[in-house]
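Narrative of activities, Objective 1.

The group set out to show that a structural description can be obtained from nothing but a protein's sequence at a throughput compatible with the screening campaign. Below is one input-output pair from the validation batch, recorded exactly as produced.
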Amino acid sequence: MTTLRTTVQSFDLFDTLIARACVSPVNLFTEVGCALGVADFAAARMQAEQSVYAASDQFDLTAIYRQLSAIGYCDASLAARLMAAEVEAEFDNAIPIAENIASVRDFDLVVSDMYLPSATLRGLLQHVGLRRFVHLFVSNVGKHQATIWPQLTQRWLILRHIGDNAHADVAQPQQFGIATSHYTGAAQNSTERYLDDMGLTLVSRIARRLRLANPYVADTLEAELWNSFVTFNVPLLCVSAVAVKRQRTACGKRKVLFLSRDCHFLSEVFLSLYPDEPAELVYVSRNALAADVDGFARYLTGHNVAESLVCDIVSTGLSWWRFSQSTAQSIAFFALVHIDNHQYQAFDANELLQDPQYQFQAATRTSEIDKWSIAIEMLNTADHGATVALDPVGNDFVPRFEARHELPSNLLKCLILAQAAAMQSLHTQRHTVRQELAGLSDPDATIATLVSRLCATDWINRFADFSICQPTS
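Output recorded for this entry:
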């Protein structure tokens, strides 16, 4: 009698269902050594693993730590503490790869070449939010040497195996007629590696964590938008926050006035990183400012514009220069990007830049960017239309907004959710992020690089012209 095999999917575990926030095991071992004050632990830990593997391809975490004791690196008591700290660090660093976690069904297979015990691995899967029952198969080299696949294919019809290792997760199962999918998303992308190289390691890890946590179905417009926001815009806002702070100090101002809409997200990041710094979001648009100079003069005076650095994401500088001239008001203005060769209307930018009453500075300029697009403005929109007027209410003003928004509600919601996720990470890791940012010798150069990378991304350029995201009704 023929026994029908149950159809299942098969998944690798690390870098397929779970990623490490610290990126690599070496970084995890370094964290353990630092936490316990043990010098050169990472190197000793890796050497011990290599030694036990050379002696036998059947070993576990306990055997690795016995080896550390046997070679005299530590006594048994310290070995036990280090082993417990390593397991705890795995839990601290475990982050879900949302795309693949969502694909797991009840009774699917998880197959891992790993030294951690099965109970620990199940705990890690539960820790990252897997709510399915899975069959878990753990060995040291079962995938690598392909010894696991005959017994699994005898019991189950494996529709597909998904994993990150080209040899163990792709070539080896294919020998047994198993369709495979090579998942490479857990690796750092080029922008995350760039941030690492710049000393912004935690910022890089936050961006990667958010990218892997993408809640949207892969290849949808929302998923692409989420990835662009967390890869480019979140690091850009972090670096911009320190650039704004330094510029405010350089021009001798006490406060920062961020312009809505474009600076809505930047103002949130700034206040999260520097909660003791005076900063406000003010509701001003180019057209409204020109239409009601006197009203906005009173509004901005109430917000201490004379003592403030006015900040925008992208600007020609023209509207605020004219406002400065009309009101005889000295304005200190800072833009992340100065539009100096794509003017909306012709004017002599040198006249603006040389006006002593109008202190205009920018981190970078469109003339320095090979492929300028308005993508940065689209990624930094608020959830309301542009300001069209100010209505006086008592001693204050209430902004009136355009009813229409450029983005459809589903994409606007995507940006807001991505920003909220980023803010949650920044709130909990504010001090370390701040330390990294303080170490940047030239924030403007980093801003220029991130803006250039954003503008060079074909997908986001097509998106930014709004031709593919207009509401259908």
